Every structure is written in C-alpha cells, then in structure tokens.
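Example with several molecule types.
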Amino acid sequence: MLREIRPAIVLLLALTAITGLAYPLAMTGIAGVLFPTQAQGSLIEKDGKVIGSTLIGQEFEDDKYFHGRPSATLAPDPADSTKTVSAPYNAANSGGSNLGPTSKALADRLKEDVDRLKAENPNVAVPVDLVTTSGSGLDPHISPEAAQFQVPRVAKVRSMSEESVRQIVAANTEGRLLGLIGEPRVNVLALNLVLDKAAK
Amino acid sequence: MTVIGWLQIILFCAIIVALAKPLGWYMTLVFNGERTFLSPVLRPVESGLYLMSGVDETREQHWLTYTVAMLLFHVGGFLIIYGLMRMQGVLPFNPAGQGAVAEDLSFNTAISFITNTNWQNYGGESTLSYLVQMLGLTHQNFLSAATGIVLAVALIRGFSRASMRTVGNFWVDVTRCTLYVLLPICIVYTLFLVWDGIPQTLGDYVEATTLEGAKQTIAVGPVASQVAIKMLGTNGGGFFNANAAHPFENPTALCNFVQMISIFALGAALTNVFGRMVGNQRQGWAILSVMGVLFLAGVAVTYWAEASGTTTLQALGLTGGNMEGKEVRFGIVASSLFAVVTTAASCGAVNAMHDSFTALGGMIPLINIELGEIIVGGVGAGLYGMLLFVILAIFVAGLMVGRTPEYVGKKIEAREVKMAMLAILVLPLMILGWTAVAVVLPSAVASMANAGPHGFTEVLYAYTSQTGNNGSAFAGLTGNTPFYNITGGLSMFVGRFFMIVPAMAIAGSLAEKKSIPPSMGTFPTTGGLFVGLVVGVILIMGGLTFFPALALGPIVEHLAMNAGQIF
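Resulting structure tokens for the full complex:
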C-alpha cells in the first residue's frame, strides 16, 4: 500500500495542474482569439460605454420600454450585511424565487401582478411569463405574447401606431431552431434598443 | 404537452442511443490500453506522468489496492480544495476580492466536489475567486468524473475476467480516462460553448450602465471551460448561483440541448463498454433499455405536470404551464426534460428552479435520485449502481426457479448479494435518517423557505441530493448553516464511498471466479423479460423504501393543491 502514496501525491498534483490551470488558461487564450466578443460576455457598447450584455436581462420600469419578466434576485442589505433585500436583475447574484406551487407568498404576488397588468391592457389574457420570475432572475427574453401584450402601452407613450410597434416586435422575434428546438422569444434589451433607434 | 415538445424529447433520446456505440467503442479501446487516434499526441504525456509519479503501468492491482489508491487520491483532492477555499483571499486570480470561505462551508464544498456531487451551499459569483473555480473545482470535476468511470470499468472487468486476482491499475485508468476521454472532448466542447455565448475570461466583473441609467454589475469569468466538464462529467456544480438557468451558463436553446446530451453521453456509452467487454453488446443494450423505460416514464410525468400548471395559476387565468422559476428560451418542455435528465444522471445542474416545480413535477427528480441514479446515472456511478440492482434482480430470478443465479457467465453467490444489498441500504439510511433529524430540530426547520409539506420536501430533497451525489436542490432551503453543511457533507461522503467499496468488493470476488458457458438452464439477460424484471426490482426497492416519505411531501402537497389549499 505504501507504494501508492507517491502517485497519490505526484499524479494528483500533475493532473491538477493540467486540468485546473493549463486547460482553463489555454481555453481562455484560444477563445479570446477565436471568439473575443462572446468570451468577454457579449457586451453591448453605446458611445463607448458598456450598457449591458445581449444575454443578460436588465430592469425596465419606464413605460416607453418593453418590460422584462419579474426578477427575484437579491443583494446584501446596505444597512445590515447579514440580511438581503430585493434587487431585480442583479447580475452579480443570480437566483430564482424558489417559491413552491402551494406558496401563499407566490399566490399573493401573482394576483397583484395580474391585477396591475389587467388594468393596463384589459383586452388580452395576461401571458404567464410576464408575472412569473425566471430561474436565474436574469432572463433576457419574454414570449412573443408578452411583447404583444405591451404594445398598446409602448405605442401610446411613444406616439407611434400600434401597427408599427407590432412590426418591430415581429421583426425581433426569434423562432425555434430548425423549427423544433427551444421556444419563440423576444430579447427585451435588443427590442428596446431598436425602438430607441427608430425614435431618432 | 405539445407535439413539438415530444419531438424534442424523441430527438434527444435518438441522439443518445446513436452516440452510445461509437463512444463505447472508443472508451473500450482506451481502457483496454490500446492505441487510439490521439495516441501520437497524448502517449508521450501519459508516459511522462507515469515516469514522474513512479507508476508501473504493467502492474495491475488487487481490488483492495485499487480502492485504497482511489481513496488516497481523494484525500489529496479534499485537502487541495479545502486549502484553496480557506486561503482564497490571499491567492491570485481574484478580481472580485472574495475573502476566505468559512470552515463549515469549505468542508461541505470540498466533500461535495470530491464526491462528484457539486452541491452548492455557496453562490459561485458571490463567494469564489477564479482560482478556486479553476484549480479547486474544475480540476476535481475532471478527477471525480474520471474516478467514477474507472470504478465502473473495474467492476466490468470483474465480470469479464476469469480466475484473476486483479482488476486493473487505478493510476493508469484514471490518467487514461482524463487524458484520452475527458480532456479532448472538453477542449472541443468549450470552444462550442464560447461560440454560443458563454464567457471565458479572467477579466473583472463588468460594470454596465443600463438603458434606464441604473448600474448593473455583470459577473463573468472562465465559465465555459468549467461548464464543459461539469456537464460531461455529470458534476453539475455551477459557476454561477443559478447554474444552467443563468444565461451565461446556458445562453441558447441549442446550447441547452447539447448540454443535456453531454450529461447522458458517457453514462449511456458505458453500457456499451460493458457489453463489449463481456463479449456481447446486447447485454449492454438490455441495460440501456432498463434505463430508457424508467427515463421516459419520468419525463412523461414531469412534462405533463409542468404543462398543466398549478391551481394558483389556473385560478388567475394564466395558461401556458408553470413558468415560475423557468427561463423563456427553454420553456416548459426543455426545463422538464432537463430536470429529469440531470437527476437521472447524477449531474445536478439545473436550468430551472426545482423548488418552484409543481408537486408531482418535482417528485420525479426526487424519485430519480432515490432510485440510486441508475437511469444512465453519473458517469460510471450510474453503471455500477445499475449492476448492483441487476445482481439483486438475478438473485430474485434465481430464487424463483431454485438454481444458482448467473450473470454474463459469473455465478452470483451470497457474497455478491450481501455486498449489493449493503451498498443499496446506504441511501435510505442517510436520506431518511438525516431528514428525520432535521425536521425535529427547530434550528434546521428554520432553514425552510416554503411552509407546509413543501418545506418538508425541501429538506428531503437536500439529503436525497447530497447522499445520491446529485447536487441539484430545492434551493429555497438555506443550506449554508453549520448543521446542514456538516450533516450534508457526511451524507455525500457516505453516499459515495460506502457504495463504492462494496461495489469494488464485488468486482474483486467476481474476477476471481471461473467463467461458465451459458447452458439450457441459463436465464437469458438480453431480452424483454430480463428488462421487465430489473425495472420491477428497482421500483419495488425504491417504492417500498421511499414511498412513506414521498407521501408526506409531494403527494400530500399535490392533494392539498387540488383541494385549493395554500400555505
């Protein structure tokens, strides 16, 4: 058994160096050359400043923008670091609500959001993704239905025709891969950027 | 449920089956020590490693030596992770300035990674430096996966050899598995993942000013290289807290689909390795069929439950299924399929929050782990777990007809059956034992995030996942307390090694036996009757053991939900 101790130390350290340092560092180098944009996090710059990532959702509250899904991410409470406070779309601390199917807290939150959205657009059924939080709290997408639902509000604030806004939404709707894999979706940040551009 | 949904599921299954044979062929070459197309590049590295570490690659080991070597290897792995976490504040590659991790959390995380569990009581982006993620966690993702695979190979050798005292050389197996199987696939895979959008950088977290003028700190890091091995090695530990739900760990539906395939690929291929090594590939297909039956049954239930939604959603007129805790780009079907895949294998990565699943939708992941993660299972661990059930099934069949049971030419006798039983009993001991303790301790009950039966399920899931070395969670539970860190760490340790040692004892005892040719009286183990028998034994064992606990958790919650009760 004693003869197993040397490989246990030497082989472990060697394989650790290969898989724990050489491999990730080499991949970082190669990926940085081949796919520099993605490797940095698919960042979007405007006037030389980073305004976000195409992959990471951000919070929109202004009526002129399409809104993303509710987010359950948290941040440390500035007043008491042992506690946390709600901080939607906190991309430094991802996470979901973890509320279960029979949770009263979830039922109350859903009812409040559904009532608010019904008041905004009473003519269409509220899409489920617009009132449920995502797993990461950073979901960059909403369903096409959720985007269509918000068209009247956005069109009114921007003094655009609903039809022209609907066209922009349709042009920014991504379908399933090969018509099969994934779900139809709209990237909220990308859509809002297009709208801002159209307004200029 | 939709037609497109089911087509995605069928396509997934077809690809797994199609990959099993070529991957199985390649892995058989590797573990038989033969030349492969990568040998010109890798053989010099391999020889160099043996030379440095004093390994004689021609000398094989007795099962006990093999096991001791494996355990020593893990003691070292534990010390590396624990040390790195405790000292991370003064080490390099730490742009976010993370401080030392507490003792109990370091203990839990170190055990978690050496046992291939990757339970996350830590939030990656808010707790760990890049150095710990790479040198601590990525390296152990490779080595714990390699260990699982080589143990399965050693057990297969027990079946395929006759009258031999050795089962292989642990050092050679683990080196070859890492160099020839895991590393080459991960290099290609990482590049695909970066192309698809996963970051791979050592740069600082990005400070962005959003369209509405708010500040957003975006955590990045060397993510892709870790995601590749976390999936391929069925480790599952996320770079980020939200794991594969995070858009940086799983940016597109295509990426999600490939990730699911990579979870199952090696585990499914090992059934083919088994068939090849025992000289009849149909033996491997029979085992894969057992897995397939149980898998599809689980997918159907979870998909149906999530697509149906909850009474709360229905009452508010919200249709389209239970989207709480799910991402739009994956939707109901890819989230349900992922949940079943990740718990059938002992991966534990999640692309949706299991805690927010419906009662029945979340019960399937729980059952998958409680059955021992033998539905494809963790790389290696799934196959040796499944072979334990096969031994029991063969034993039961032997009892029915009153003759000594045989499997692939080996007599299954008292020693093998005892060892198989011992390994299988570890699961309920840890899962039900610690759950029972936790629900009577007020300080442990305080960690539950949900009230009512769902809170109980959170605790049951925590011990199930850790004992089964899965790593997924009903993440509402506050697991980062001394009680959960320590008892969870023990569960992971016992769940891994108290299963491995009996399995290795079986490998040793089988290798020493003579091989007997099949006769008229041999029970055929490649047909539908055998598949049905093994499925039955698995369900009866799991059903009898865990049904009472499930009745107190998800089953009563489902009934309460239908009665309109909320907590």
